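ligand=D-malate
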Amino acid sequence: MRILSAALAFAAALGLSTGTATVAGAQAYPSRPITMVVPFAAGGPTDTVARLVAESMSKSLGQQVIVENVGGAGGTRGAGQVAKAAPDGYTLLLHHIGHATAASLYRKLPYNPATDFDAVGLVTAVPMTLIAKNGFAPKTMGEVVEFVKANKDKVTYGNAGVGSASHLCGMLLMSSVGAQMTTVPYQGTGPAMNDLVGGQIDLMCDQTTNTTGQIKGGKVKAYGVTTKDRVKSMPDVPTMQESGLKDFEVAVWHGVYVPKGTPKDIVDKLNAAISTALDDPKVIARFADLGTEPEPKDRRSAAFHKDFVIAEIAKWKPIIQSAGVYAD
Ligand code: MLT
């Protein structure tokens, strides 16, 4: 026992990590740029949220927070990369609701979303919109439902892979309409949006952080928003519930994670930097332009985020099981 305490004192003097945070290490953190992995393609909604928050976090942390896009497999490729990274605070993951649904959707997930990460903090919950290429015939949400019922798999629906938010919304839409469309997977809804604007695919459900500009620019048609209330930045777009899809409600919550075992002092420092970013007037204004807002203060702790992810995994499991949609 005495040898161990001497060793611990020696390690502390060296600022080496003993699994729990050493003040020296945390005070020195960060001493070099930090990578924030976004598990979807550049230019999409999650990338937009990440770059806004990362820019503000760089200021308060005094080191660059650099976004790295690792798309594929509905976000599980990027998440898997972070699960295996060193728990030293230099590799972060910014992911969304897909982190929770992957636990039920993927039969062979190379990591456990609940236990292989430490939750750092929630960022924002983004509404989604159902949009279509400009040449798509239906004028209203009601007509979309009839059109999909009549044409089924002749209708092409773009998404960012199994487990992505656009996949989840599509699954909810197809089960509420009672008809299956043909889905076209992409590495993210950034590239999917290019094909929708180009008329290569018919429909997509995507986050307002990616659709607002295209809708306001008249590049796509908008049928409905997936939140209970209309979005302030697009007051003319009705809710899916107003259009008769009564239980249709989904918002894409986003949070930041680090590999399991990252020292608590470092997690606390990152959590504080996220909260500072969410109070940043530039971030607040840009979020508002894009139809979303920062998580309120009472939902910003790492502990709240941890419990929230566990609750979301439990909530989506029966929904996914009843839909019978799985990915290997
Ligand atoms: C993206 O950033 O591409 C999206 O979050 C993908 C999705 O989940 O639909």
